[in-house]
From TrEMBL:
Record carries keyword NAD: yes
SUPFAM superfamilies: Formate/glycerate dehydrogenase catalytic domain-like, NAD(P)-binding Rossmann-fold domains
Name by which UniProt lists this protein: Glycerate dehydrogenase
EC code(s) of this entry: 1.1.1.29
Stated family: Belongs to the D-isomer specific 2-hydroxyacid dehydrogenase family.
Keyword Oxidoreductase: yes
Ranges where the D-isomer specific 2-hydroxyacid dehydrogenase catalytic domain occurs: 19-318
Domain D-isomer specific 2-hydroxyacid dehydrogenase NAD-binding positions: 112-290
One function term, GO molecular function aspect: hydroxypyruvate reductase (NADH) activity
The organism of origin for this protein: Phytopseudomonas flavescens
Keywords: NAD, Oxidoreductase
Gene3D superfamilies xrefs: NAD(P)-binding Rossmann-like Domain
């Protein structure tokens, strides 16, 4: 395939908010067609004659691949490739490349932001100020909600790849001790504690592991019950790692110091979610935005261009199938 090929980005609006330099990607193709978003009914029509499909969440399944015989490469503008049928792509000789490590600084920063917000009761104090409670206080300050120092506390981590390492370094800068848990389905390691040993020791638990059949519902009511009273739980990985109803119940019962999540099992949560109920105390939910700094999104553009250039030169990089 030469650089004269046609590429179609089916859902670029999930990446570019009008603040990115898309030049590196345009330079790889004679024609790059950008669609803000594409419905499942539009995907096949829009990919006709295209040699390259670029997707974030748009689905490329066996039916799409079968109906688009010119397709040779799928570039995923994310790490997860669950929206692409990798087996069908492989059988048809269609390469699939993803992006990796682009959001490490952004997600690590977001993780610590959530932890700090819980430790300082930031949301509760902001709510009280808006309600006029500080203005009515008989003292110069308002101290109605707990404030916890992170120094000297223990952070438990499930998942210690590039992102986990970045979070660990930030936590250690705050004086925290970091312990690592053993993930199911992984070979045992001397520096990884079984979950039942890890959880009772930690003051905060943060998740940075992939969602697999082994890690689905990794944290249920049982595991939450093993945590110290007052412990924090943070999830910036995948929603399915935690039993969301169990987490809501634990917070309502006051068994945790608080929880924060950037992810839910269904996104967007059009059908509701147990963690969106208005009566759950000490909970912060952010809309899968941890990865979304401009810098991180610009790195994705760069990696998409690198992946395209590598494939064009016969030296594919970040290929997953």
């Amino acid at each position: 395939m030469s650089k004269t090929g046609r590429a179609v980005f089916l859902d670029y609006r999930s990446l570019d908010l009008g603040d990115l330099d898309m030049t590196p990607l345009h330079e790889q193709f004679a024609e790059l067609v950008l669609h803000e978003r594409s419905t499942s009914e539009q995907v096949i029509e829009r990919l006709q004659g295209a040699r390259v499909a670029i997707v974030n969440k748009a689905v490329i399944d066996a039916s799409v691949l079968g109906a688009c015989p010119d397709l040779q490469l799928v570039l995923v503008s994310a790490t997860g490739t669950n929206n692409v049928d990798l087996d069908a792509a492989r059988s048809r000789g269609v390469a699939v490349c993803n992006c990796q490590g682009y959001g490490t600084p952004s997600v690590a920063q977001h993780t610590l932001t959530l932890l700090l917000a819980l430790a300082t009761s930031l949301a509760e104090y902001q709510r009280d100020i808006r309600a006029g409670r500080w203005q009515q206080s008989p003292m110069f300050c308002l101290l109605d909600h707990p404030i916890v120092e992170l120094e000297g506390k223990t952070l438990g981590m499930l998942g210690h790849g590039e992102l986990g390492g970045a979070v660990a370094r930030l936590a250690e800068a705050f004086g925290m001790r970091v312990l690592y848990g053993q993930l199911p389905g992984r070979p045992p390691r001397a520096d990884r504690l079984p979950l039942d040993e890890l959880l009772p020791q930690v003051d905060a638990l943060t998740l940075h592991c992939p969602l697999t059949e082994q890690t689905r519902n990794l944290i249920t009511a049982r595991e939450l019950g093993l945590l110290k009273p007052g412990a924090f739980v943070i999830n910036t990985a995948r929603g399915g790692l935690i039993d969301e109803q169990a987490l809501a119940d634990a917070l309502r019962a006051g068994k945790l110091g608080g929880a924060a999540t950037d992810v839910l099992t269904q996104e967007p949560p059009r059908d509701g979610n147990p963690l969106l109920a208005a009566d759950i105390p000490r909970l912060i939910v952010t809309p899968h935005s941890a990865w979304g700094s401009r810098e991180a999104r610009q790195r994705i553009v760069g990696q998409l261009a690198e992946n395209a250039a590598g494939f064009l030169s016969g030296q594919a990089i970040r290929q997953v199938n």
